[in-house]
Design a protein that fits this description.
mainly beta, single chain, binds zinc ion, two-stranded antiparallel sheet, about 70 residues
């Protein structure tokens, strides 16, 4: 399956992970303009953060506020 960003035409990607019950997929996201198919992760208008300060990515992930060597 291939998905292209409806805003900039870049080939999208998504994260996959093994939940223990099967492979799960995060929302499709664009590496170029940071569009996400999930509104909660759509970063086209700027970065988004969770309540505890984690930075969201367009693939449904969340990253700690302080990364070592960042
Ligand atoms: Zn895009």
């Amino acid at each position: 399956m291939k998905v292209y960003c409806e805003f900039c035409g870049t080939k999208c990607r998504r994260d996959s992970y093994d939940s223990g019950f099967g492979i799960m997929y995060g929302p499709w996201g664009c590496p170029e303009c940071r569009w996400s198919e999930d509104d909660r992760y759509d970063l086209r208008e700027g970065a988004k953060f969770t309540k505890n300060g984690y930075r969201l990515d367009q693939y449904g992930g969340a990253w700690p506020p302080k990364e070592p060597n960042a």
